Queue: 2 jobs
Job 1
Amino acid sequence: MDIVKELNKLIHPGRISTAAAVISQHNHDASYHPAANPDVVVFPENTQEVSAVLSFASEHGVPVIPFGKGSSLEGHAIPYEGGISLDLGLMNELKTVGDKDGHVVVGAGLTQFQLNDALKKHGLFFSVDPGAEATLGGMAGTNASGSYTVKYGTMRDNILDMEVVLPSGEIIHTGSKAVKSSSGLHLSGLFAGSEGTLGVITELTLRVYPIPEASVAARAVFNDFEEAVTAVVRLRTAGLDLARIEFVDAASVAHVNRFANASYIEQPTIFFELNGEVEHLQHQIKRMEELLKPFHLAEFLTETDQTSQERLWDARHNLAYYYIQAAPTKRMLVTDVCLPISELADSILHARQAVEESGLEAGIVGHVGDGNFHIIAMADFEDANEVTAAKQLHKEIVDYALAHDGTCTGEHGVGIGKKSYQSKEHGTAYDLMRTIKQAIDPRGIMNPGKLVD
Amino acid sequence: MDIVKELNKLIHPGRISTAAAVISQHNHDASYHPAANPDVVVFPENTQEVSAVLSFASEHGVPVIPFGKGSSLEGHAIPYEGGISLDLGLMNELKTVGDKDGHVVVGAGLTQFQLNDALKKHGLFFSVDPGAEATLGGMAGTNASGSYTVKYGTMRDNILDMEVVLPSGEIIHTGSKAVKSSSGLHLSGLFAGSEGTLGVITELTLRVYPIPEASVAARAVFNDFEEAVTAVVRLRTAGLDLARIEFVDAASVAHVNRFANASYIEQPTIFFELNGEVEHLQHQIKRMEELLKPFHLAEFLTETDQTSQERLWDARHNLAYYYIQAAPTKRMLVTDVCLPISELADSILHARQAVEESGLEAGIVGHVGDGNFHIIAMADFEDANEVTAAKQLHKEIVDYALAHDGTCTGEHGVGIGKKSYQSKEHGTAYDLMRTIKQAIDPRGIMNPGKLVD
């Protein structure tokens, strides 16, 4: 069968491509995982077209791989079994801004940055902020989170409803526009984080928030790695109303200085944000200073100027790119474990030791308010020793997290990179996930090889 | 086959009962739904016993109906096809209080009141507060919520992990103790709200919160129903940090006065709670007063005394029981729609008109901060006219909610009472729910006849 010829009957030929440049845009992501070409890339304009493609693919057993911006760190959008790369980029409409209801309705191809640009004039913002310019459909697919998650929750927490096209081509809604519901099974939660293995998300109804009256950024610089980690736990459990609490190690501060033209002290640092009413903020900053007194700080600074704050958070978000710029011949492997807060200090100390033993160029950063941290490790994937070291480091970090009540991935998702840990993490529940996958996608066309088999 | 004889091989005979008194404790719930007897009631002591019962039931096609406290309002625990009523009451251990992690591990048979009593000395509380003394397993089963949900979320939002016994007898964990995860399919969300139709919840890891530094209750009494409803929407969308925002109509205030020995003005009233730091509270109360100025209030009072506050909230929680006490020969039908906030004012005004047209004794109350409200209607179920009126009223309210982007049940769940609305609310997604049910419980032993077929 000639797939392209068949697709031409369903979709305007101008939105179906096998051009080498288009294929290679859709054969990789932002990670170290090897590239693999799709047979064809399709750019649907609406849900009916997605439905037509899936019906066709189901009938003929053709793999379909949803594609947003290709910013995944775990190979989610790489078509290892060929087939159709379904690029949702044209379905990027901001359909409704429900000011009173605090929600928006968006096409799955809209990116988080586009959404926030559009929301500004309504005095609203969307809170889920992974570093990359990801699409909201992709972010739902991996249950993305980010620096604001400690206050505003993950992607899944902010989804009211999704329109999803099932492998059969049937179109469903997973929820409603009510902020809570006890009706039916919780399909929004099931499809969020399903990584395109159960269907294609085409539209999302998302919770958005009023831009706070004011915000303050604070920066606490420590002389000692261990003290910094202990302070994180102290602040996290003190009940402060923190909007962001980010740990950055000395190596990573050095990268910020180099690539973001900054001059922060190159020592373990915690970046905070508090937001809300001005009086409330002042009170909270005071409490934070008191809580930090027992520690030996090299510096404690607060920043109320909006531009300086944005510059700081941009630098934090861009950290992964700085590591890539610093080692252009290497590729990036990022760990993503998340542990209970009580296990966090020990686990980051363990991670630092593992990094040192690996001999790799690497830094530790993290959304530590949630117990989630990353090792950004650069390795030459042509060098067998470095590859072994990187994979060994990854395994060591995940094994530690699983042995201490944690998870192998806090926000990046499973894709192919965490798949070998699924059985260990979920035990018999992984069989149940397979049962669900098999029931919803019996032909196995949806993003084969990712998350579950 | 003699079920009891077979069960005797698995469970100590002292915890298997067919005594009339025990059967009749397990043949009804707190609603108007007709009673039906189980064949036998089993009281497992641990997860292995639950597993043994389910393996046996699966093999022989015997229905299993999980039972907590029987406080359901939609017939969830009534065994309409006979079988085994599985009473989790003995599995009520508080296993872990993770102070640093802000979570607890509990047996499914522990009640919300028992949990909160035990947490007090740790300076912690559990936030999900339906009116009844429900078990935490039952509350997870229906995705319960309550007056604190506007600030702290629903049951599902507060579950990190559950131990669940599948129909096959296999034991799984649905999550981990990390506060966020992108690993695997979201089984915690799927089993929360599945109403015992997919398996038996035996243990839960739940998020708990520090008891706030201070709290203030406020009471705004309106001269006019319409103004009260408009004020709710105004306050809700102003970004105030409200912990509770409860609307109570005049008829319901009258019931509170009569049965809780109070003397509130018998007019439409909003009860609030704000909690947090003292300074923050003062500022918020001031803002609330400003926002309420344009309305013609009969009274605005704040209450900082803890005992008075508790008395007020107990009265609110007990409202349904007051209606039952006031009409002891009648039975209670409670609607439970939830709509987007922008639709709330019109929907409550519509509800009031529908109540008046029904001729039934009824009141309107609600967790209006979430868009969720209830009509508590009393009807004589021996009187065909009253039954028709009650069912017509229910249908009218649900149809209105579904036509305005809402849901038929915000917190009580589907059971048998909302089942006829599932297809209309979920459309083709209801077929998918059936597919999932069929995949996980192919013999259909788990709580047959509820939620999905």
Job 2
Amino acid sequence: MEYEEPLFFRVMKYAADADRDVVDMVSGNPDWGSPPAVSEGLHAYADTGGDDFQYPPSEGLRELREEIAARRGVDVSQVVVTNGGGGANYLAMGRALERGTGDEIVMTDPVYPYYPGKTTMLGGTQRFVVADDEGHIDPADVREVASEDTACIVVNTPNNPTGAVYPEETMAELVAIAEDNDAILVSDEVYDHFDFSGEFTSALEYDSPHRIVTNSFSKSLAITGFRVGYAIADERHAEPMKSRHMLTSVAGSRPSQAAVLHALRNTDPDYYEDTRALLRERIAAFTEALDAAGAEYTTPEGSFYVMARFPGFPGTLENVYELIDEAGVAGMPGAGFGESRTDWLRFALVTPRAQEAADRLADYFA
Amino acid sequence: MEYEEPLFFRVMKYAADADRDVVDMVSGNPDWGSPPAVSEGLHAYADTGGDDFQYPPSEGLRELREEIAARRGVDVSQVVVTNGGGGANYLAMGRALERGTGDEIVMTDPVYPYYPGKTTMLGGTQRFVVADDEGHIDPADVREVASEDTACIVVNTPNNPTGAVYPEETMAELVAIAEDNDAILVSDEVYDHFDFSGEFTSALEYDSPHRIVTNSFSKSLAITGFRVGYAIADERHAEPMKSRHMLTSVAGSRPSQAAVLHALRNTDPDYYEDTRALLRERIAAFTEALDAAGAEYTTPEGSFYVMARFPGFPGTLENVYELIDEAGVAGMPGAGFGESRTDWLRFALVTPRAQEAADRLADYFA
């Protein structure tokens, strides 16, 4: 699979250029607003200057790393603050490949398209395990594909694009497969605050040098533009990941890190609960209208995406354009996420008009 | 040469832990303060929120790229906003190597230690050209080393650590050597606002697809912690550099980019002139005291570093520790910058106590 991220931009541009009103369900940009402490933290930082405007430690502000370590129950030495979740995945996958214990990266189909893109850039080889219609993977399939050539298994739970949340048994077995093949499980958990199933299990539950957990504040604090994420890894991986981070970026952005630190310390748990409640309502309204449209779909267990399939209407780029022009709804072509989802479309529930969008789809397919 | 950046941190830690007052001349962190428009821009951004807190374009905020393009007289399509100058150099060197036209990276000795570090991480081979005592390179030496194996020539003007500013003839010949060997000249010009010689010539003067110019606002706006830099490259390089940036970081930090954009638009040229005047004074005072200490040194033509050599006192790490403990002055061991400078020490003029430091050195060596 080629790196297809520019597809997002093509679809967004087509929707923006359309002659009619279009409900944008393309991007993964939260629309529900950040907690006030993000702005407060940025204002407080803007009032400093001088030394505080200079390089933070390359691995991240000490207090931020300590805050993360305390929340995740790990030693601070295991925490690397990164340029968002994307930066964390890059460092983790780069580390897995540079160990020299294989050049294959196992991932799922459908897949978040950055993973195959990073694999190719890093000189690795892509291997895919096909998920079922609900987005779940059978660990036995992963074990079959894994071998001494496996450098890394990269998964995303809660999942983009399928909404699947992998159960405890799956996570335990994925760690075991990584251990048995001298590989690293990279568990990308950026949607961990968006679990509606109660089934979410972090790979952190399994203390192993064969797993690296990546995460980000982009979605949980609705600040995708700040670029603050983190990785948690055994020191034997954390140290070379820090070096790679230093050699690619020197350090992460200090204004962003200061704002995130302040927001973590001053945001009420209600903020996260309210966001989940909002998304639960959107999911219910959107899927109800999809029923009316005669669509097949997966109800997300987590994250904020719904994959849907309409009879006789495959999820091609042409059909995406058709829906923008004729129904006024913009989604993502399933083909952007891998071969198994070419019939499907992905809709991101990042608009208060999700129900209106579903009604438009119901009208169009009536 | 191994990647020796952690040496900085070791020296800074030793100085911080010392039992006595120490003048810190180790880091490259400006101490003269940012223009007020940086804070103002950050405050203004903090008041936005919502959509403005979400992903900027991966290649950088459009208005920032336009501002840079207008200032540098290039088309906006050639501008990639990066995670500081370090990010720009990483993208440029990565691009040079991925072209497949050689795996050698030619650099100077002494060298900014990130260049050899990045070369190794990217799978390239290091080749060094030795600079003369003033830090200048003879282009004939570069031409002799360059071959069909050369992917890239990376230079830094004004130079860290030597303070040399390469004259026009050198820059013209470096571009020609890159062209003649199907290689790319990466000209790192992050100290371009700190030229005291009037001789600074940007590689941008030479319109060639064989040169990439990198730069940053870290030093010019005294915001090393914000991580905003840029590269200017022919589109055939800018496009793959944008892809690499997307795959490693998704995008740069938007709060930082917004603050830089505001600062560029609202900072009087006097700010830069005043900084240069301040540094000229520091250089004069510091070098005068070095004369009194019987040291050999280079008067910087640009940047804000002075390399000095004391009779019978090589620039080893042990001697650096000795000067911290006995003289109360912290510099960097010359060995951190390459084999040609093992006798030397580097002092960064980023403290109002530069003259005091030189007086202490004069006392110590008296």
